[in-house]
Amino acid sequence: MARFLYTLAIIALLPWAVLHLLWRARRQREYLRYWGERFGCYADAVPPDASLIWIHAVSVGETRAAQPLIAALRTRYPDHHILLTHMTPTGRATSEALFGDSVARIYLPYDTPWAMRGFLQHFRPVLGIIMETELWPNLVATCKAQGVPLLLVNARLSERSAQHYARFPRLTRAALGQLTAISAIGEADAQRLSTLGAPAVRVAGNMKFDIDAPEDQLEIGRQLRARIGDRPVFLCASTREGEEALVLEAWQTIADAGETTPTKVGAGGTAIRGPLLVIVPRHPQRFDEVAHLTESRGFKLQRRSDDAPVATDAQVWLGDSMGEMFAYYAVADVAFIGGSLLNFGSQNLIEPCAVGVPVLIGSSTFNFSEAARAGIAAGAVRQVSDAAALIEQAQNLLADEAARRAMSAAGRAFAARHRGATQRTLELVERFIPAMR
Q1: CATH assignment, 29-205+420-429
Q2: Closest CA to 324 of 288, 359, 360, 355
Q3: Average model confidence (pLDDT) for the chain?
Q4: What is the pLDDT of residue 260?
Q5: Catalytic annotation, pick one of 30, 37, 62, 132
Q6: Correct CATH for 215-264+271-417 of 3.30.470.20, 3.40.50.10140, 3.40.50.2000, 3.40.190.10
Q7: Which of 340, 354, 432, 434 has the highest local Cβ count within 10 Å?
Q8: Is the entire prediction scored with pTM above 0.85?
Q9: Whole-number pLDDT of residue 437
Q10: Beta strands in 91-159 (DSSP E)
């Protein structure tokens, strides 16, 4: 009965879903593409007789997290095709940037019973894998009915998300109970899932620790750093709406004091290179918005898309490119991780640690609570309460090379210490697909 009522609600919301796509397309026209897939209509993305492993990665973070697992699956099961499903254009674009034509990709349809039956009958996967925590009751029930093993891996569940799922106890318990297996990133996540009704949850760790910085990205970073010169670089990575204004306001305070002047003269007539603020918004549709905001504050702005050396009088450099986050980390002397200054739960703080960049985060870390706690304890991460404290900490670190080196070494050690989740997840997969010999 709970799933029946849920299905009625999904059907009632379908007209709203269409309006939502149109609304989002105002700022990101990619939302106008592939509508048929969202309602269960597909072209032939893979050969009809292919043995197929299907992975659902809703957006950018989940797609990046799947990267080491996809590499391991392609090695272990070379005769199987891989299908990635997404819900957002940015997730799909990330898939294209990371994997090119080596995987197939489509949008997962809205969670109606007939669309999910059509999806499974069209692609006939031998195994389904859901990254992190995306519970679609009709999808889970249809996989169960059609005998498709469905795994929830790299599962994370914040206290806030657990409270949301707990509002629908019968629906949530049924969906969790019909999953074939679940592996969580930490003990707290596993406990929350068990409390909601998951019958057996193993802890495998976080596969984001297994992501290696691509050498081509690091090389791009070195080239970008050469364009900047010897100025200290403070990177604000994956910033979310509202955070750039807070950062720029706090940065303006020290700019008014002359601390961010690109070049100033110190004692004895020595030229001192002031810091460069680099802002990389999380969502590409906000690049122009952030550029306008920066210039309206009176800052001298330059954009990555200009593909030119950073001018000596530039105060803010906008990272308006996709798929280059590791390159930006390679440029940075200190990095702030967006989504943590306001209540978005933080973006991925593991990647900059692995590259050896000192990390600053705000107080909102529910998406990476375990990693944030461990990173702070390891000395790789410092937490701040607000934008003013953030800029103060950034200034202090930019002026203290010894502290930066210590945090860099701590970050690399912290990231290395937590590797291995991909192998443990692969061992779970092997229970349902015999390894190809």
Answers
A1: 3.40.50.11720
A2: 355
A3: 92
A4: 54
A5: 62
A6: 3.40.50.2000
A7: 340
A8: yes
A9: 36
A10: 104-107, 127-131, 150-155
